[in-house]
Amino acid sequence: MIQAPVRVRVEQFSGDVLGIGTPTPRLSWEYNCPVPENAKAEIRVERRKPRHGANESTISVDSSQNILLPWQFEPLDSRELVNVFVRVKTDKETSEWSRPLFFDVGLLMPHQRVADFVGPSWPEAGTDHRPQPLVRTEFTIREKPVLARLYLTALGLVSARINGHRVGVDQLNPGWTSYDNRLECWTYDVLDLIHEGANALGLLLADGWYRGRVGFDGGEANVWGDKIGAFAQLEVTYANGERQSLYSNSSDERWKTTLGPIVRSNIYEGETYDARKEMPGWDRPGFDDSSWQPVAEIPFDEHKIEFPVMRSIQPDKIQEDRTIHVTAGVEPGTWLIDTGQNASQRLKLHMHGLKAGQEISVQHAEVLDKEGNLVTTILKRGHQLDTYISNGKDGWWEPEFDMHGFRYALVKGWQGTLTHEDIKCTVYHTAMERIGWFDTSNEMVNKLSENTVWALRSNFMSIPTDCPQRDERVGWTADIAVFSPTALYLYNAAGLLRNWLRDLAFEQKKNGTVPFYIPYVPMGIWSDPQAIAIWGDAAVLVPWALYMATADKDALQEQYPAAVTWVNEVHGYLSPDGVWDRRPEYALGQLGDWLDPTAPPESPDQAMTAKELVATAFYIHSCDLLAQMAIVLDNDDDRKRFSHFAEVSRAGYGKRFVAANGRMTSDTQCAYTLSIMFDLVPDKTLMEGFGNRLAELVRSSDWKIGTGFAGTAYILPALAKSGHLDEAYGLFLSTKCPSWLYQVSMGATTTWERWDSMEPDGSLNPGGMTSFNHYALGSVNNWAYSTIAGISPMSPGWKTIKVAPRPGGGITHASAKHLTPYGLISIAWNIDSDSHCMHLSLHVPYGATACLDLPGTRQEWLKGGDYQRQYSL
């Protein structure tokens, strides 16, 4: 019997969603049973406009069109509510309908965004540490409605309350974008929060990224504006179809504002909350706001408001079992909290027994020094210090508009005993579905993989940041360029990355090149963007990784012009032989193999591998990927042009960087790695020699890593590709400093920025820049998934899957699961030491095909289903 399709989705969202931003959304679904080749998929769409009734349509498509199927119906209108059902039908039988997918449509047309941005109407002194305002209004509902939507965004950050209840669970909305390009608007179902009669809407505002000081080297304040304000559009529909609307504005004299109890707030530095300034009932009807002032309107182009392609920042739904330890500090009234996990999170404390005016401070940090003290020097300006000033009443308190990257916290000013019952700890990140898992018989390898998951969670905070704790926290392009394949294996991060790429394209046009980080804010020596290899190559590497993970051709097409512009720009910097040796007009020049472990602590760009070698290698790689993009997008002229670019530069690369003795002029792990992985030298004999030399360098290094950002993601694949699997495992499993598992041996719960962020004796790297929560070095896990467990995509969207486990390193079993667009691919293998056999269990998702490739056997092509295999080793 044919079963009903499962996991019906719209665009790249998982599950139901409010406020999509397109009238023609694409649909996807999966099958959990074999589907006959002649089967059809019937799609039933029930659509309803709040004021115009409902209608239903059904169409039929080939059952194989179940991934990002273009919209087959009349375009949707703003506010339209949609239920989607899918079933499978053949000549002989018909499945049940799938569970319904529900979504509705945002305000697609600019003129439908009627509300204004409103905020404080008084002069605000200074540029930092300003008290944060409240905004409120009241409205009357004549009868219980059948539908209610709140459309909400802000210049700054906003959190809404209706009748004393928080709207949604989102944090730090509307998130961080290039605000001069676009601003995201979030949609909320508030039907259960409003009632017949008098109601109140309250808004808490904060500076956030928009006006608050952001970034390093002192940071910058008021980057996008010096006035904050909220956009709130509440639309209520009654049973008879009549709509009642409430718009934030400064003209009807119904919106009031005043200063609230948050007396200072900065995402990086922390928040100060003065409970004495609380105004109970301010977000409920009947509150006396006669002392409040009228709001002021903040002009903003409504054309720049858009509805998101991603979820918002939310509490992590996976509540991991963590025991929070609390110990008394050295000084009276101080208590040290150990949450057990470095993460982007916030503490909620039960404030009790305090006198009015008594202060409690909470300092957050990632690690402790050798004496057991919080390490705060590496935070620089990002103090991560929260302060609570009591009003003499008991209650729970959690900061509203900051976020901290920490494991430890020191509470000061606490009278009496602080226990774990007084503490709640919540992890936050952009809401994404977990879609990838990995496990082996080696617990240190498992810990490395899980540390990478935590680093991803901590840094996927509206944008892909590089760290969640210090005064940096920006969207560095190189980090995500090398990490995106790993990220897309672990989480459905497609929406977040597509969202970020839109700002990359904007900042590229605005600045004349791909800046070092996105959104871009000029800071320190980074104030004049120049074309830098790897960093700029994110314009190509990230969209290609996104396409391989999802088969989203529209996303690829959207980013293609930026990718072309990047490669064309770099092409203009090349010497006649195709080598990128022109030094950028930038203090550090190229950044090269950034954070090579041999680089001096204060000079992370001083790697062993020549910068022009690295730059040329990545340029060729981007040309190759761009040629593949051109094939996908049916642009043969571009394919030929970028293939020619790559051909010319390959010839120049070989002449410049390969010595007469067959060695690379930079005799380094990185140089051979890039040459092997990017196929930079067509001579097979030379390539064989490169593999042998790379393996020799790994052995002679005493199994220590010798690569930075440029080589780390590729060195193990290069060793395996060149026939040196034993060396790959030896390097991967080393616990010597520097290595991946050295960090694990030092008690890391996330991946570090530097190989030696902490020295073996517990002291910190002497460089002024270090972080214990960076994901870039975790890019190695992509090799673990594809080689140890043995699964990777052969074609976009995992339509064809390579299944090729290569056991080694004493690992006796491994398993992995990944939720592909077609469904779950899962593999588990174990080695029987007595029989010297590998036992393998495999599930291939229906609609996909797997190529099973094991050493010493013929390749076997497998359709969707479950398989058991046994092979002699």
UniProtKB/TrEMBL annotation:
Domain Alpha-L-rhamnosidase six-hairpin glycosidase as annotated: residue spans: 434-788
Pfam families named in the record: Bac_rhamnosid, Bac_rhamnosid6H, Bac_rhamnosid_C, Bac_rhamnosid_N, Ig_Rha78A_N
Molecular-function GO term, any one: alpha-L-rhamnosidase activity
Keywords: Hydrolase
Biological processes annotated in GO: carbohydrate metabolic process
EC assignment: 3.2.1.40
UniProt-recorded name of the protein: alpha-L-rhamnosidase
Organism from which the protein derives: Bifidobacterium asteroides
